Amino acid sequence: MPNFTTEIMETLINKGDLDDLFRRHLELAINTLL
Predict the structure, then answer these.
(1) How far is residue 8's CA from residue 21's CA, in Å, rounded to a whole number?
(2) What pTM did the predictor assign?
């Protein structure tokens, strides 16, 4: 989870797309469950 927080901060600092960040992590979580 700390890595996720770091990625959020880096995305905000770089004015990145948070939707893309959440989408990637959600996809990873779902794939892990399957």
Answers:
(1) 8
(2) 0.68
